[in-house]
Each structure stands twice: as structure tokens, then as C-alpha cells.
């Protein structure tokens, strides 16, 4: 994926959430709906989150230096991890607190039709944002399932935006159900139930993101498909076998490859150097993210021991 990391999807989500947050707060002030308040805080959190994702993309572009010789690519993982934490604390925790509070002290809604109209409009806007994230993700998703894409993607922004937008859509539906039932039955407890459902939903999404972003932040290797391609391209030409290999993503667009290889015997130093250069070119042609490649010629002692 390009260094943009789904910038179009992030910006679309930011603009949609900023507008929706204002509308929801107005709706809460008019109706007093706890579901509307929870959704307002949720939209504010999402807007802040998209800002953090854009900040991470910007800081990750800083050039490598003596202190950070491999660059700042992991900034994108760090800010995505912060986004997951914010979604949990600002979104889920607040909604759960507000839902429990409103169950204990229910308050009747005023002008619920205002909340319904705002929620319907918000669902339409959020659907457009979600569609943009899906279109951007399909460019790099390949033939894996959406769940596999979220679990396996080494680019953090699009999985984050996808889950955020999905959570926002379901959250709006839960809020609409809560407000609707509270209006039809005259029992404001349903509004609080909708708020609790929003809190649980955001909590589940936040935990998934925390787990995935923590894994990326610590350092993940190449995907199984990428590793197979790398090994196949290394073990060609005058390289007979890959003895040992380790990989790690040091940024969404930069993969570090370190390998020990067994080479054809009797090669001159110049031939060894050329064989290594050729191997690097082959690997980068198949896995463009493999920008840093270190190849060490070595003896294949396992073969020597059995001969």
C-alpha cells in the first residue's frame, strides 16, 4: 500500500464525524437522550481519532537519523494504538457509565422526533464514510476475508477506520432503537438500554483494535504469503538454499529482511556480491515493501553433516 495509508478514507471519516458530533450534541440538548449523548461523545472521540491517524502519517514521514536509523514508520502503529485506547476510554467507558446512570435515574425524553431525524441523517452520512473506507480497503485487501484483512493487515489506518465506521453505524442503529422504544412505550429506560448497547459495542471494537495494534507496535513479520515469495526469490540463481530468515515490519510500508543463505561453492567475491544484489532485486520485485534486505552467505552445515 502507498504511504497514504487510506488518507481519503480517514479524511472522509473525520469530516463526517465532526458534522455528526455537532448535530448529535444539539439533539441531546433538545431531547435529553442518553443515547444521543453517548453517540455525541462517540463521534467526538472518532473525530479526534482520525486526527491522530493523520498526525501519525505525517510524523512517520520523518527521515531516519542516528537515533532512529530505521526511521519513524512505527509512529503510525503508535498513534493507531492510542486511537484504540481513546475509543475504549472516551467511547465505551462513557457510554456504559451514562447507560447505568440513566437506568438508575431515568429521565423522560423531550422532542424525541428531533433525535430520530438527527440519527437517520447521521446513519446516511456514516454510511457514505463507511463506503469510502470499504472502497479504499478493497484496493489492497486482495482475496482474503474482511476479518482476515483486519487481522493480517500491516497498514493500521484502514482497519481502524473500517471498525470505527462499522461501530458508528451499529451504534447509531442502537441509539435509534433505544429512542424509538422509549418514545413508543413511554419508558425512558429503553434509551438507557440503547446507551449500554453502544458501550458494549465500542468496548468490543476497542479491545480488538488494542490487541491488533499492540501486535503491530511490538513488531510483526511478513505474512505467510510474503515469506514464501521472499524465500522462493532468494533461493534462485547462485543461491542454493535459505538457511535462516527473519523478517519484521518496521513501518507499514517497510519490511526488514535478514537471511543466511547457502551459495554455489567456488564463487569469487565479485560473483558472491553480484548474486546477493540479484537476489535483492528479485525479492523487491515481488515484495516491494522489502526495502531493507541483509543477506549473509554461510555454509549449509546441515547438508555437510549428512553427506
Automatic annotation (TrEMBL):
Localisation per UniProt entry: Membrane
GO MF term list: monoatomic cation transmembrane transporter activity
Cellular component annotations (GO), alphabetically ordered: membrane
SUPFAM superfamilies: Cation efflux protein transmembrane domain-like (SSF161111)
Keyword terms: Membrane, Transmembrane, Transmembrane helix, Transport
Keyword Membrane listed: yes
Lipid bilayer topology: Multi-pass membrane protein
Domain Cation efflux protein transmembrane: 11-217
Residues that span the membrane, as ranges: 6-30, 77-97, 109-128, 160-183, 189-211
GO terms classed as biological process: zinc ion transport
Protein name as it appears in the record: Cation diffusion facilitator family transporter
Organism: Kibdelosporangium phytohabitans
Amino acid at each position: 500500500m502507498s504511504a497514504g495509508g487510506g488518507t481519503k478514507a480517514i479524511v472522509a471519516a473525520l469530516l463526517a464525524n465532526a458534522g455528526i458530533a455537532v448535530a448529535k450534541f444539539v439533539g441531546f440538548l433538545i431531547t435529553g437522550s442518553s443515547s444521543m449523548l453517548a453517540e455525541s461523545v462517540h463521534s467526538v472521540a472518532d473525530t479526534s481519532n482520525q486526527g491522530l491517524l493523520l498526525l501519525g502519517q505525517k510524523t512517520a514521514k520523518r527521515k531516519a537519523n542516528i537515533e532512529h536509523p530505521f526511521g519513524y514508520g512505527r509512529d503510525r502503529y503508535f498513534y493507531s494504538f492510542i486511537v484504540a485506547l481513546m475509543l475504549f476510554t472516551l467511547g465505551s467507558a462513557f457510554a456504559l457509565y451514562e447507560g447505568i446512570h440513566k437506568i438508575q435515574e431515568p429521565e423522560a425524553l423531550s422532542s424525541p422526533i428531533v433525535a430520530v431525524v438527527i440519527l437517520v441523517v447521521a446513519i446516511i452520512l456514516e454510511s457514505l464514510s463507511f463506503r469510502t473506507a470499504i472502497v479504499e480497503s478493497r484496493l489492497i485487501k486482495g482475496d482474503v476475508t474482511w476479518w482476515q484483512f483486519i487481522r493480517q493487515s500491516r497498514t493500521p489506518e484502514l482497519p481502524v477506520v473500517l471498525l470505527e465506521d462499522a461501530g458508528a453505524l451499529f451504534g447509531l442503529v442502537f441509539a435509534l432503537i433505544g429512542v424509538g422504544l422509549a418514545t413508543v412505550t413511554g419508558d425512558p429506560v429503553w434509551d438507557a438500554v440503547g446507551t449500554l448497547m453502544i458501550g458494549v459495542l465500542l468496548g468490543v471494537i476497542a479491545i480488538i483494535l488494542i490487541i491488533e495494534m499492540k501486535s503491530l507496535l511490538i513488531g510483526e513479520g511478513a505474512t505467510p504469503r510474503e515469506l514464501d515469495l521472499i524465500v522462493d526469490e532468494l533461493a534462485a540463481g547462485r543461491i542454493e538454499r535459505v538457511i535462516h530468515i527473519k523478517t519484521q515490519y518496521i513501518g507499514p510500508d517497510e519490511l526488514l529482511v535478514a537471511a543466511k543463505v547457502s551459495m554455489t561453492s567456488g564463487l569469487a567475491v565479485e560473483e558472491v556480491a553480484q548474486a546477493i544484489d540479484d537476489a535483492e532485486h528479485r525479492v523487491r520485485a515481488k515484495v516491494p515493501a522489502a526495502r531493507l534486505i541483509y543477506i549473509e552467505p554461510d555454509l549449509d552445515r546441515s547438508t555437510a553433516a549428512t553427506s
